[in-house]
Amino acid sequence: MKNYSRQREAILNVLRSTDTHPTAGWIYERVREQIPNISLGTVYRNLTALSQSGDILSINVGDGQEHYDGDNSSHLHLRCKCCTKISDIALSLDPFARLALENGFKPEASVYVVHGICEKCIQNKI
Amino acid sequence: MKNYSRQREAILNVLRSTDTHPTAGWIYERVREQIPNISLGTVYRNLTALSQSGDILSINVGDGQEHYDGDNSSHLHLRCKCCTKISDIALSLDPFARLALENGFKPEASVYVVHGICEKCIQNKI
DNA sequence: CCCAAATCAGTAATGATTACTATTTTATTA
DNA sequence: TAATAAAATAGTAATCATTACTGATTTGGG
Q1: Same domain flag for B19 and B49
Q2: Which helix (H) or strand (E) covers residue B53, if one does?
Q3: Which of residues 20-49 of B touch strand D (CB under 7 A)?
Q4: Which of A3, A21, B54, B80 has the most CB atoms less than 10 A away?
C-alpha cells in the first residue's frame, strides 16, 4: 500500500464503500462526516490524483458533473437518461483494450457508457 | 430528411465535414463563417437537439468541455492523454448493445473511450 | 393573410471546477 | 532529536463552459 494522506485515504474509503458513482460534492459530504474541516479543493485534488494513479475511475456521462468509480476493474456502464442511474455490468475481458494495442495505442483506463432507458423506467412509462 | 432550421443545418454540416471531435466553441467559430451573427446559445441548443435525435454523438472525455461527433455509427474512441487527440476505430458491431439488452436496458447511444498514450507520443517520449 | 408555436440573437446568471496563498503536515538529513 | 526542505492542506477567490432568460424574428397550418 502506498503512503496516502489521511484525507486521501478517507476519500478512497468512501469510494470503495459504495457501488454508486458519486460526484465530488457527494464524496465531500461523506468525507466531512469523518474530517469535518476538509476542503472541497482537497477532495478534487485527491480525486484527480487517484484517477491518475489508476486507483479509481473518472466517468463523465455528460450531465455537467464528473462521476467517480471506486471499482477499477473493467466494466460497462448503463446510464438511464430517465432516472440518471448508472448500472455496472462486469466484463470478463476488455475487448477494446486489445483493439487499442493493435493500433499502437497504450491503454490505461477504459470508460464505456451506453446511454438509454432502464427496465424500471420503461415499465413506468406505460 | 427532417425540416431543420438554417442554423441547425449549418451546425450539422460543420460536424459532418470534419473527422475531428470539436467542442461547441470550435463549431461556433466555423458556423459563424456562414452565419456571422449566430448566437453561441443557438449552437448549444441545436447540438443538444441533434444529439437527442441521434444525428450526432456527444462525447465527454473529462477535459471540461463537451465534444461532438458527426459520425453516429458505432465506433471506439482512443484518447491520448498526452496530445489530447481522439482517434476513431470503426466497430463492425457493437458488443455492448447486446449486453445492455440482455439486462433489460434499451440502448440509444454508446460512448466508448479508451484513455492512454498514442503511438506518436510514445515515440516522442524516448 | 393571420395567428400560434418554434426558433433565434444577445446577454446575464449559474455552478462545477480550478487557482491561489498562507499554514500545517510530512519526509529528509545530519 | 532538531533543523530544514518538500508536499499537502484549508479556505477563499477566480474561471469559464454551459444554461437560462427575454424580447424579437421566423415558420407553418388554416
Answers
A1: yes
A2: none
A3: 23-25, 40-41, 44, 48
A4: A21
